[in-house]
Amino acid sequence: MSEKHTFKSELQQVLHIITHSLYSHKEIFLRELISNASDAIDKVRFNSLQNEHLLEGDRDFRIRLAVDREARTLTVSDNGVGMDHDAIVDNLGTIAKSGTKAFLESLKAADAAARPGLIGQFGVGFYSAFMVADRVTVLSRAAGSSQAVRWESDGLGEFTVEPAERAGRGTDVILHLKEDEKEFLESWRLRAIVKQFSDFIEHPVVMDVEKGEGEDRKVEEETLNSRKALWLRGKTDVTEEEHNAFYRQISGDFEDPAKVIHYAAEGALEFRALLYIPRRKSWDLQFAEPKVGPKLYVNRVQIMDHCEALLPPYLRFVKGVVDCSDLPLNVSRELLQHNPLLERIQKSLVKNVFQALTDLRTSDPEAYRTFFSELGPILKEGLARDYANREQIADLLLFESLRTEPGKTTTLAEYQAAMPEAQKDIYWLAGEDRAVLEPSPSLEAFRRKGWDVLLLTDPIDAFVFPGLADFKGTPLKAADRHQPELEPEEKALAEEAQAAFKGLLDALKGRFKGVKDVRLSQNLVESASRLAADDDALDPHMERLLQKLGQAPGHQDRILELNPAHPVVKALQAVHARDAADPRVEAYGQLLHDQALLAEGSRLPDPGAFLKRLNELVVKDAGIH
Ligand SMILES: Nc1ncnc2c1ncn2[C@@H]1O[C@H](COP(=O)(O)OP(=O)(O)OP(=O)(O)O)[C@@H](O)[C@H]1O
């Protein structure tokens, strides 16, 4: 008896995109189906380590392509783990993989020109079959069960499921090819696609092909993939083309990797690692639950597709394979979680990734800059999460600064080397972007002294930088909370001004909400005022970010600083000296406070009142009141 189901709404949207917007690289459907078949074989092989009976004697793992010209079908079969009724309903129609919703939302939000690029990144998996087929039948029998199940759909909105027969465990995905996709019936075409996209799959991908002419004509089974385990070869025995092809296959990326890490550890702990650093952020890093860690093999046998214990989450962009012969083949997933052996491998991998990134920065600064602008925000998470490696991570960071031109960058080491004798600290300021940061009153003193300040504009910066106390012995300080010390002559000026302005300062104290003190500053040059904060106060940029995230961090009272050399402050002082009760003292004081908020990129608590005051001044100035 056949049951009808409807696809989950997100999947209906994905299917719509697949059938209406994906026209290029249609051949990747075969890579996706072969990869699913290979995963299914890995799963049954892994499960059989605990339960040998699951295999029922069939250890001849393979993926088979079969063509039926008359029926215009292409079938991809495997003797993997298979699916029972519930698994097939869940996996092929009900459960959308993580990140699908976020992807669809960003697709809606993106402008038309950016959409094809976004769609191209999305991992379409099984559903890519509908790029070339107008109907797909899946026949599957779960390992350990005698009952098979048939799934069928035209990809429009519904699918059917019914009981069926299948000779052994595994899955057949039968594609009823569209009229104009007949090329996928040709053995030369299939051979070429497998070579291009699935050559390194460990299990054989086989197909029956006709060989010979006339009398000698016969059908032979051909293995289409080379199944080369590149990581087992010597470093110099693998060509760049092989690396590129292997990387593309395991990552799904259409670009070549930015850097290859290939080595064999020998001695107390033996393992081989072949890792790749991508150029850009992949789809899953943007939208989905991240799959952390390289594939784990034990003597060429894949144990896990992503072994989280092998790399920390902040290196989740690194793809590749680790093969360790010191682990037992039937190692359980639980055992892998806190395994001292894996911890040692992780240490070595992390060190090698840092080294590779350092090499890339020196050998190809442009490629490193691209890598960093895409994946730097992820790497920076390590500053907060990996205390032991904080310094190495900090060493890899790139920053714009007051001295760099927009778009150009400096490193902490370069900044440190260029510090003048008198400067003892590294300064940074965090904000939305360079245009907001540059006019900040907090930077004026640094400009005057010729000291550089790092301009931090990644949202994550405000979260991780306050925790980075120093870099190779030089303290790191936030420029808005730590202004340069005054020179002796500036100190003398400050004392003089303090005496002259005392009356005004006392009059302004306690008048503004959220301001706990009003004082003078010799550090301001162009600006009339600035809002300073105590050393341990929350960064105002961080406060704004938390507000955006819907969290109310609780406002922290600030200190209003006035520039005694500024004409506006002098004018206010004159008004106050003439008549301390003049209402303009409060009104102008409020304007100075609001200016300071605007200058640091914060919002005014009462923009209406600010505008009213400003307009009154314009009218007065024009002399038509
Ligand atoms: N040949 C197969 N044998 C057994 N299960 C399969 C097979 N093909 C697909 N599945 C099941 O269907 C699920 C969905 O497959 P799909 O290709 O859409 O996504 P995925 O493989 O999980 O993700 P990705 O494509 O990102 O690897 C798989 O996770 C798997 O459980």
UniProtKB/TrEMBL annotation:
Region (A): 1-333
Pfam families xrefs: HATPase_c_3, HSP90
Gene that this sequence comes from: htpG
Protein name, as recorded: Chaperone protein HtpG
Organism: Mesoterricola sediminis
Listed SMART domains: HATPase_c
Residues that coordinate or bind ATP: 32, 36, 78, 83, 91, 97-99, 121-126, 171, 333
One GO cellular component term noted in the UniProt record for this chain: cytoplasm
Main location: cytoplasm
C, as annotated region: 545-625
Zinc recorded as keyword: no
Family: Belongs to the heat shock protein 90 family.
Biological role stated in the UniProt entry: Molecular chaperone. Has ATPase activity.
Start and end residues of each Histidine kinase/HSP90-like ATPase domain: 25-181
